[in-house]
Structures are given as structure tokens and as C-alpha cells.
Amino acid sequence: MRQILMLMCGVAMISSVVFADDTTETCAGGVGIVMTGAVTGHKYCFRAVGMTWWNAVSWCDAQGRRLVELRDCACGNTISDCAGNKCPDLTGVSSGWWTWVMNSPSNSTSSTLNVNTGKFNNGMNRSTESGALCY
């Protein structure tokens, strides 16, 4: 009995050490990664899987959220409102992923945003694959 108790304590201690380094916060049932806005501190849910603009909108909707919009950038309502065409709230929050933005220049194109540099890329065909970032 004593040996079993010692074994159980040892396993519990090892398990706590293994999980102590896992600091990545997840969302959407564990398939998304939480990104915290650099300016606002808002918690976004990001899915680093290539999907079309329509799929990204649907995925965010399924989480009870919406696809990120320009107004979420903490600089204005249009890309030109943001200094250097960058989104300050989503600059440096991850390492280089591109994500769809809800606002679109036309019915067939939309903008994408790099969550490392904060830069926008306009006029992307909505059938192209990019990640989804939900507000």
C-alpha cells in the first residue's frame, strides 16, 4: 500500500512539472489559440488553418464570435486611418500568420492581416486560403 501511494505521488509530481511549461491559452474547444491585443488587451481566438474568407466567417460565427474588423485595430475604421497601414492591436501577437479581415474592398476580394507585422494586404481573392481571427 505504501509503495502504491509513493508511486501515485511520484506520477502526480512529474505530471505537474510536465504541464507547468504549457502556457499557450486555447479557445474553440482547443483548436484555436488565444491572442491578446497589444493595445486593448482583448482576447482574440485564432485558427492557424488555411480557409477561404467564407469559411473563416463561418468558423468565427460557430464560436459565437465574428471575424476581426478594421475597427478592432485600435486606430480607426479604415486601413488608411492606421499609421503605416498597420494594425497596432494585432502587431507582434504571433509569428507571421496571415488572417482574413471582415471588411472588404469588393464582393469578391477582402483584406488579410499579418499578426506579426500588423500589415494589411488588400484585394485578396476570397477563395485564397488564410487563417481566421475572431473577435
Furnish the topology, listing elements before pairings.
Elements (H helix, E strand, L loop, with lengths): L1 H19 L5 E2 L4 E5 L6 E9 L1 H10 L35 E3 L8 E6 L5 E6 L4 E5 L1
Antiparallel strand pairs: 1-2, 2-3, 3-7, 4-5, 5-6
Q: Uncertain regions: pLDDT < 50 for 5+ in a row?
A: 2-21
Number of H/I helices? 2
How far the N terminus sits from the C terminus, by CA atoms, comes to 52 Å
Shape: globular
Helix content: 10-25%
State which percent range the strand residues make up. Answer: 25-35%
Rg is 19 Å
Helix/sheet category: alpha+beta
Q: Mean pLDDT across all residues, rounded?
A: 82
Strand order of the largest sheet: 1-2-3-7
SSE run: HEEEHEEEE
**Would you count the extended β strands for me?**
7
- Major sheet size, sense and barrel closure: 4 strands, antiparallel
Textual characterization of the structure:
By secondary structure, this protein is α+β, with helices and mostly antiparallel strands. It is about 20% helix and about 25% strand. The protein contains 2 helices and 7 strands, in the order H-E-E-E-H-E-E-E-E. The strands form 2 sheets. It has a 4-stranded antiparallel sheet with strand order 1-2-3-7, with helices on one face. The chain starts with a helix and ends with a strand. Mean pLDDT is about 80; it is low at about 1-20.
